[in-house]
Design goal:
The structure is a homohexamer. With about 240 residues, chain A is α/β, with parallel strands linked by helices. Helix content of chain A is about 30%, strand content about 20%. In chain A, strand 2, helix 3 and strand 3 form a beta-alpha-beta unit. The model of chain A has no long low-confidence stretch (mean pLDDT about 95). Chains in contact: A-B, A-C, A-F, B-C, B-E, C-D, D-E, D-F, E-F. At the D-E interface, helix 2 and helix 6 of D face helix 3, helix 4 and helix 5 of E.
Chain lengths: ~240, ~240, ~240, ~240, ~240, ~240
């Protein structure tokens, strides 16, 4: 992802990106049923770095496993690249945590762009105060060892019913998280910026009282004329 | 609904209305599992204007369908009467949006009283800032075309497991949404105002330390005496 | 529970308590899928006082049942001990309320420490403003009579898939609620205070940029030395 | 329940009983989502004898608990009256067994009329060959100790979202299980026998090609005449 | 649908039809989570005739509604065309019945090709013995009036998350039910017959021990040669 | 697994194995919510060979992917060892198939011991007639490409909420499927054979009318004496 694409994706919504992907035949890129713990932050944008959990078997997951410096969860937290988004496959099971406040803080300090799980975080009240975006299904205090064993780093996974391939561009806003296939990121970002300009124009017009038919989409010539004028006036 | 009934319904809670309907044998009028995007607003009150979605078949729902000025979703947004509440049957499926920020803004500008879906809205962070009440299950960025095809306007529907007949009086507060059958609206509104006066009295007494037994319900004569005095003092 | 244990439990998180119980072979003490209505409050700590609902049969649950001063729900609200936490088995069914604002207010006035249901509360916007912690699944306006009949007080129950025995110590924070078996409360509280000191130290170090491997858990000698120094410096 | 009522209930369907109870305002007496393991048997009819499970806490439920001759599950199996139906509240959780082949065999040998759980049975292939009706949600091999602790015998419970009071008359057929409140059993049984006669008549007529309008219900005079003749002819 | 298409669809599986539709971009035509009550019958094939239920409001659905000869459920049963398949939108709610044995018998006698609901049937043991195919989610004894109000006949509906338009060709086998859009029925039937011939050939080869790679799909020239010979030999 | 262990596991039930594992602290080895398509077969026993699906992205999963002889699904079908059990992680999503009749036939012909998915099979009526055991959640006709992309072979996975490590011993009977960790297979098989002998003895006694208390478990000395005699008499 070039820096320009990242900058563009900071300015568009996951809803707009969904539509851009829908036009390309990709109907299932929005991670289902996750929400931001800290919804007031700017967009989260970065390539996916993934972690895969499988169900925890009791004998393999005593509290002592974290004494091992090679434990995948701990390795992942140190190796997730700066600017990346860690995406965790928790099999949509929020009955135990996917990670907690300390690990998420470490990711934040290392310059990671955000974290997403289709399970839940513990220490969620702390994470809600962090400046790195985090998304989950619901708070979950039990240690991950209760139900989750970290197994793989940076392999293709499912998260919230969406395929996530390492390097896909993950974008989050206050609504949720979308996964943009890597090879489409540049063109989708560019299109989404254009779509956002038009939607901002439409929103302004609607707030002034204009009907949507003929305006959204702009089937009336006048709508297109007005939008062109608006772009000039706004410098967009 | 006469203006007086609307005014009354602005002052009572969905919980009180549930009880008033329960007394009349209607046990299933509270829309399940929807919540307000903007919970700080006054009550939402208005007659139901409905829209029905069915599952979207891919070939019938390309992005181009909105070029048709007769598309039911767009027609509905322009025809929903001022003061009405648009209620959408999304088959409790929030995996794609029921509507987005621009359409909801248009409804608001047209003077519609509110909007309810048993699915989800996209652009939910925007809608959360609007001054028209909106209720859904959870945010959902994918365009409605992904899973929903708008089919009918103003027919009887189900929404959150509740029957909604056009013209039923829909009331929302920070707790959720209740559907009051049209023919009961006046009497239920009147009764709910009375119940609310009593509940406010009880709440005050409880906060002063009074036990609930004998007070709520007022099986003790003294409770009824005190309430009568309270009404006089409060002018209610 | 001695006062010292209560004081300790006011200072630790449910996440830390989960880990302390996990170490003792108790993997399933966190009540699933409940959340605080008023998350800004101090911890909720107190012994469990339970109420058990069964499904309501229509003929046994007309509105008039509350005229009976012996109705278990009303008796429970008056008999739940000061300092206790009322925990309600609502069979994870939030389609009707477990209790409402007036009853919760009465509990608060009586000095009860908090209330938990695996169903929902009505008058939830009011309860959200109370100073007594309350936890539920989601708001639910219908009167409890719609679906729930209060049957037993202070018997062992299930709540959110967790066994709750009367007298177990119930602790809630902004994340959720955990049930600590009564006989373990003192030792778990003590251990959790120690764990919290260590986690606070780790969090500080992480925010300064220190890696977690070797620090959390402190497999490096230096981590233990630094923690010892930190404790002296902080007086913990 | 008098023997005559039992005999009548052996000849009617749960569907017919549902309608008879619906007419009396009882809409929620059919146990949801249970099915017979051995659907070829005659009806199951008997008064409810209940067992209540709560979630199992690990330290209270080692395998050794069954050494205790007072363990409620084992006591229940020996004390459930001959002719009764054991109904188990498993909190709709079939992830571990409610009972297994040996206990169910013991009930059968003791003359118990049947067994119902809203969880699952283990040894289900054996139970499927028994001559005592058994109903559950799905097979479940894990021992009940994994998730269930037997706590109470013969108290009111919920089973499959239905209230079950000890002594209620439980009727099962190949479709499922219904709970008839004890005080209504005689009248409902009598009415169901009448309804069944009429439905059998209608079924015969329909199979001969007669339309249902005017026949079912018999709004046409001719339908009532024909039914009267049919009853005479059939001796019913 | 011409008679030839019907004949072809009698000989192919829903699995094969799913693949034929998948190739045309239709990924969501298999009705989810329904199963045959009588799986030993020939395929069910016919154009869809639909019925739409909404949630039942208590005051609108007393037992007496069936006295009205215009009640949509009864009208539908008499008007569903011979050779059609009745498809019912029960909002995936099987807690009460969609229809019962008498109505299904009437449809069968009238020459209807089959019936499908995404809810449940009552009198299911009877229906399981009928010679007309019937599909549902699970048996459900309560009368439809408990939860369902029949509202519309032959409008577009959702059934098991699939769009069903009147006239779409509905095909059922022992696996389940698929909805073929009307305009595609002829071509899809023809293609499915071809695919079935090939799959039958492959199945025979596999049973003789041939590996699937190169055979299925037939990327090896030899596979195509052998299939051509097989067709000649079999006269298909 | 030595041949003796396999032979033993052919004679014991998944229920007995669950208890043997429960005694060793393994509470979560029974695959949840799968059932046999062909329940009349002997037990399924073999080491796990796994396949992992992730959600299918549309552009990566056109029908043409099977032209690739390296497609993991097809490779897995040819490489799964004779005597092994193929276990598929379908993320508990049965909306599209995990595999179909031809692939399952190929596995059977290759001498594979069985197949398990926590999704569904297509061509399930055919598979139900095979002599190789197959387990799934429910029939599902849509091609796997609709929702599943095969990614990995023989890596640790989750299946029905259970951890499955390659080489774990998978046992299926008419009740369901259990996963025995590889290192425990010999001792658990031996113990299960012993337990089965005792349970068979108990079952016989119960069928003669003996009470379970003191017999099961055999806390009475007489029970142990009788069992010893029974073993001699039966040669077990």
């Amino acid at each position: 992802m070039n820096p320009d694409t990242r900058a563009k994706l900071m300015t568009v919504s996951t809803a707009t990106l969904c539509t851009a992907l829908f036009k390309r035949g990709l109907r299932n890129q929005f991670i289902q049923d996750v929400r931001p713990l800290n919804p007031g932050l700017p967009n989260m944008v970065g390539p996916a770095y993934t972690m895969r959990y499988i169900p925890a078997r009791e004998d393999l997951n005593p509290i002592g496993v974290f004494l091992d410096p090679k434990h995948p969860q701990r390795v992942g937290v140190e190796e997730c690249p700066e600017g990346a988004v860690m995406v965790i496959d928790s099999r949509k099971d929020a009955r135990a945590a996917s990670a907690g406040g300390i690990l998420v803080a470490r990711l934040m300090q290392r310059g990671v762009a955000g974290i997403v799980t289709d399970g839940g975080f513990r220490d969620s009240p702390d994470i809600a105060r962090y400046t790195m975006p985090a998304y989950h299904t619901r708070p979950s205090a039990p240690t991950n060892l209760t139900l989750h064993q970290a197994l793989d780093l940076n392999v293709p996974i499912g998260c919230g019913d969406v395929a996530v391939w390492p390097g896909d561009i993950v974008v989050g806003d206050a609504e949720g998280v979308i996964v943009v296939p890597a090879h489409l990121a540049d063109e989708v970002a560019a299109e989404a910026v254009e779509m956002t300009a038009f939607e901002d124009f439409v929103q302004e017009e609607v707030m002034k009282g204009r009907p949507i038919i003929g305006l959204y989409p702009p089937t009336l010539e006048q709508s297109r004329i007005d939008f062109a004028a608006w772009r000039v006036a706004k410098g967009r």
